[in-house]
Amino acid sequence: MGETVKETKQKKQKKSWFKGLKAEFKKIIWPDRKSLTKETIAVVFVSVLLGVIIAIVDFIARIGIEFLVK
């Protein structure tokens, strides 16, 4: 049995969608190793720094709450 018009249209839409996706991926400018390393280090540093700041604020809040409760 042959394909219906709807099935054929769906297959064409899928192919068109994947062609568009492939074209968009070709437009991406991927970072080189040096800039990727720098950006990764920056993200890790900021994450650790924020973790330390949150820990300090949490510690101060805990001491403050214990002071108020006692």
Per-chain topology:
Elements (H helix, E strand, L loop, with lengths): L4 H23 L5 H37 L1
Structure description:
- By secondary structure, the protein is mainly α.
- The protein has one domain (5-69).
- The chain is built from 2 helices and no strands.
- The mean pLDDT is 89.
Task: Tally the beta strands.
Answer: 0
Helix content: over 70%
Largest sheet: none
Give the overall silhouette: elongated
Uncertain segments are none
Q: In percent, how much strand structure appears in the residues?
A: under 5%
Order of helices and strands: HH
Distance between the termini: 83 Å
Tally of domains: 1
Treating each run of at least 4 consecutive H or I residues as one helix, how many helices?
2
Rounded to an integer in angstroms, the radius of gyration calculated over CA atoms is: 27 Å
The overall pLDDT, averaged over residues, is 89
Task: Look at the helices and sheets and give the structural class.
Answer: mainly alpha
